[in-house]
Amino acid sequence: MTRMVLLGPPGAGKGTQGQMLGQRLGIPQIATGDILRDAVARGTELGQKAKSYMDAGDLVPDEVMVEIIRERLQGNDAQDGYILDGFPRTVAQAEALDEMLEAIGQRLDQVVHIDVENEVLVERLSGRLICRDCAATYHVRFNPPSKDRVCDKCGGELYQREDDREDTVRSRLSVFTERTQPLVDYYQQQGIYRKVDGDRDPEAVLGEILRIIQAG
């Protein structure tokens, strides 16, 4: 039984690790953006409530997100554990999550923070290129196309998203650090916080996270 939260800045590899862990442990990776979109697409009562905020350009309130997560955690596939990816992001959300888990007789086992230095993340994120036609992704250093700014798969034009420009990346990382440090302190006080070095081969990072889980 493993109930855990994955923390990490943009570009740290949270999504990749969540998928690998989910496959290895046989439990779902619950990315909050995905379950929010799913609830909206299915037109559930909570999904409709969330959509009303999204349509107005507002953030979905914590209490609505927590209820959507509660609904998801009670699915059959989550009974042996789950990996929460993308929530909580603030102490208020962490407190709301703890209250909700207590109400359904659960608690978190681990909070694992995939830590990568900002300069490494800036290089990872600001070098990303995407094909306008088929959405294939490349990286100017780690996975360059054969021809400059031309997709190998379909010949489409490669471009850089606004989100991936260096100044935007640095701003996103600054916001993450500012919001996440109180969350780190919160989970350290509970004794369930662990930090791993994410600037390694994904399999090495996975191995360390699995050792943390096994150690309990």
SSE inventory with pairings:
Elements lengths: L1 E6 L6 H12 L3 E3 H11 L2 H11 L6 H12 L7 E5 L5 H13 L6 E6 L2 H9 L1 E4 L5 E3 L18 E2 L6 H25 L2 E5 L4 H14 L1
Parallel strand pairs: 1-3, 1-4, 2-3, 4-8
Antiparallel strand pairs: 5-6, 5-7
Question: Could you characterize the architecture of this molecule?
Answer:
The protein is of the alpha/beta class. It has a single domain (2-117, 166-215), classed as Rossmann fold (3-Layer(aba) Sandwich). Helices cover 50% and strands 16% of the residues. It is built from 8 helices and 8 strands; from the N terminus they run βαβαααβαβαβββαβα. It has helices at 14-25, 32-42, 45-55, 62-73, 91-103, 118-126, 166-190, 202-215, and strands at 2-7, 29-31, 81-85, 110-115, 128-131, 137-139, 158-159, 193-197. Strands 2-3-1-4-8 form a 5-stranded parallel β-sheet. A 3-stranded antiparallel β-sheet has the order 6-5-7. Strand 5 (128-131) and strand 6 form a beta hairpin. It is globular and about 55 Å long. The model has no long low-confidence stretch (mean pLDDT 94).
Using only CA atoms, what is the Rg?
18 Å
Specify the CATH architecture: 3-Layer(aba) Sandwich
Percent of residues in beta strands? 15-25%
CATH superfamily: P-loop containing nucleotide triphosphate hydrolases
Bulk shape: globular
Record field, number of beta strands: 8
Largest sheet: 5 strands, parallel
CATH topology: Rossmann fold
Number of helices: 8
Strand order of the largest sheet: 2-3-1-4-8
SSE sequence, one letter per element: EHEHHHEHEHEEEHEH
Structural class: alpha/beta
CATH class designation: Alpha Beta
Proportion of residues in helical segments: 40-55%
Low-confidence stretches: none
Ends distance: 10 Å
Q: Can you give the mean pLDDT?
A: 94
Overall number of structural domains:
1
